[in-house]
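pls ignore typos typing on phone
magnesium ion + seq
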Amino acid sequence: MRLNIAVLPGDGIGPEIMKQALNITSAVCEKFGHTLTYKEAMVGACAIDATGDPYPAETHELCMRSDAVLFGAIGHPKFDNDPNAKVRPEQGLLRMRKQLGLYGNIRPVMTFPSLIHKSPLRADLVEGADFVCIRELTGGMYFGRPQGRSEDGDTAYDTCVYTREEIERVLHLAYKFAAQRRKKVTVVDKANVIATSRLWRQIAQEIAPQYPDIETDFLFVDNAAMRIIQWPRSFDVMVTENLFGDILTDEASVITGSLGLLPSASVGLHTSLFEPIHGSYPQATGKNIANPLAMILSAALMFEYGFNLMEEGALIREAVNASLQAGVVTEDIADGGKAYKTYEVGEWIEQFVKRWIG
Ligand code: IPM
Ligand code: MG
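k done
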């Protein structure tokens, strides 16, 4: 098969972790006889510095022409600390999501047996937790207009907007996932207070009977936040709107022990995109200490969801698990043991792939 991918390393640790994910992707392609071609493009703060635009037209065109996008991270402290900055890296990310029509962000939350002790939660609560959070990604308060300030600058407002079509398509995506898993969908909203959530709940109640073998339940978002910590095993597929999903997935990610471990896939109208859920970790930039596993596992998701190449994805997972078991890990999970560099972890996994005989 021909794999033609767009590579967007972005800012901060993005380029370091991307390099490892690419080496591994190309080792997997070689193993399975696929032809990999890829092209790099700029996004985020580096794109602002070079072109004034965090998501240049050239980058968008490359994404549209490619079969999948591998994305690192964006963000830079010089923008975070300047509330008056006119252009921000995050605007590039949001425009990219919108222009590529990436309405469904799929964030699997799973545990790694060798890391259970790293979880801030008790092992008996966390063991076996395995769910998928599907976050709506191109609607809600992130994109609703009007958004802004009053003339005197002392009042600010955001608008949360959802249409039936936006809600329906992401709910169907959630049911599709649940059908392949343990057949349970939890719709998270705040229907006791906000109007958009009431529309979400109404539409979910309409759609649920179309999937008679899938159980649907509803949770208010505050309660869901609690339940993720109290009883993470109770979830199979969780589906929610953009801002709730942003918050709940950061919360859920620490169940596994480190934010540096979780990949995500964004799917929608055009090319799908695969990225770690962590950010650009500016303090670590260039030090080769960042955990590359979320990025590497994003490449696994790319094989699986982007190209339907399940064995290839499984090999990457197997190699990642082996590296964890062998203790070849970066400082965030080294736990007093030897801390390996980003590229050492990457190279170990790459060698595992090269040595593998199916
Ligand atoms: C995420 C990030 C982004 C978001 C930021 C960087 C704009 O937190 O992908 O979860 O809020 O969506
Ligand atoms: Mg977030």
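The pocket of 3-isopropylmalic acid (ligand 1) is lined by residues 75, 90, 93, 246 (CB under 6 Å). The longest strand covers residues 2-10. more later
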